[in-house]
Amino acid sequence: MASELMEAIDILVKEKNISKEAILSAIESSLVTAYKNQYKKKEDSILAAENVFARIDEETGEYFVYAEKTVVEEVENALTEISLQDARAIYPGCEVGEIVRLQAQDKDFSRIATQNAKNVLLQNLREKEKDNVFEEFQAKEKEVVTGIVQRFNDNNIVINLGKADGILNENEQVSSERIRINERIKVYVLEVRNTRKSLRILVSRTHPDLVRKLFESEVAEIKDGTVEIKAIAREAGSRTKMAVWSNDPDVDPVGACVGMNGMRVNTVVSELKGEKIDIINWSDNPAILIENALSPSKVITVIADDEEKTATVIVPDYQLSLAIGKEGQNARLAAKLTGFKIDILNETQAADILEELYQGGYEEDEYYEDGEYEEDGEYEDEEYEDAEEEYEAEETDKDL
Asked: Are strands 144-153 and 156-160 parallel, antiparallel or unpaired?
């Protein structure tokens, strides 16, 4: 029986990834519980006790359960004390004040007590297993893991991460993505909670750091610290702008992230299901950074106030719609990336403002504010799309 117990323990160690010490401790705890349940209603028995212990021999698998009681002349608390007469029936030479051990034999455990011991053991093992999984995934918090889409639960998605399930809440899902059952996807681990009832792992597909971690896994220069990702602005499912910097003057940070023939960036784009990614050079000079952030549009002048975190940008007339972007997205992402409030004007508007200022008649009015250009709806999304297509065609011709 003892050898069978040790064999079962070895199997649990391999299958559940629980230490042998933890399993032995759980078994000892279950034996103590079984002992107390067996004698809690038999207060007249000398085996009824509070101080109960169990020990298992790790080599042989043999175990014993015993209670400790203090020898007294007159018993006041039967759960902690034993009379001298009863004690000497077991230990003839004992004296008052000594602590004696009362060992329970196998036959003292009833079927119900044994079943209770089994239930306690299983519960303890489940707790140990949950704690192990919690520690494993807690180490993966703020990292990217790969999972398989298991099922849809209302508006949430349950993703199998191996030893546990992750919950992709509705507000962490990309609305444009079409996720299918059994699909393998990468998710960003937001938080790991070890609740009383279960382990809860919250994951995200919209977090900007998902993009950061995907590039870290694809770009060796980022992993070894040669290239740094300084800032990311993301509108999940649509577009991301990422500013990078190189600590080595011989390494082009943008080129390192793009990779040969765009292989590296395309891998990330594919994982994000076609989300566009603009990679720009970081600069400590706000004007240069803002100019880079407004890519793919061309910029004539940037006037930046570092203290007020505001900037006015002048672009060619034909580039205004491209600078602002569809529904203001390009300007909005540039503002998020740089931390500046950006006003964008074309050359004609800038000349008109200067003329008004020169004549002393200029007042703040309908010009670009908070990333949204307003003037009789002159610049529509179609115009932006035409400008972007023209830009992409130019870049293709350059074979970048």
From this structure: antiparallel
- Residue entry with tokens 């703020």: 142
User: Does 25 share its domain with 110?
Assistant: yes
Three-state SS at 201? strand
Q: What are phi and psi of 356, to 5 degrees?
A: -65, -45
Pick from 235, 242, 244: which is nearest to 332 by CA?
Answer: 235
Is 368 found in the same domain as 263?
no
Bigger pLDDT: 155 vs 29: 155
Partners of 147 in beta bridges:
185
Q: Do 9 and 125 reside in the same domain of the chain?
A: yes
Q: What pTM does this model have?
A: 0.68
Residue 77 structural domain: 2-136
Domain identity same for 66 and 80: yes
What is the band of 120 on the pLDDT scale with cuts at 50, 70, 90?
low
One domain, residues 306 and 386: yes
335 φ, ψ (degrees, to nearest 5): -65, -40
- Give the DSSP H or E segment for 165: strand 165-168
Q: Of residues 12 and 242, which shows the higher confidence score?
A: 242
Same domain, 302 and 388: yes
Are the CB atoms for 80 and 49 separated by under 8 Å?
yes
Under a CB-based contact definition with an 8 Å cutoff, are residues 300 and 261 in contact?
no
The backbone region for 177, taken as left when phi is positive above 0, alpha when psi lies in -120 to 50, beta otherwise, is beta
pLDDT value, residue 273: 93
Residue 362 has pLDDT above 70, yes or no: no
Q: Which of 282, 305, 331 is the last residue of a domain?
A: 282
Question: Does one domain contain both 290 and 324?
Answer: yes
The predicted pLDDT at position 213 comes to 96
CA pair distance 82, 140, nearest whole angstrom: 54
pLDDT tens for 169-199 read 999 999 999 999 999 999 999 999 887 777 8
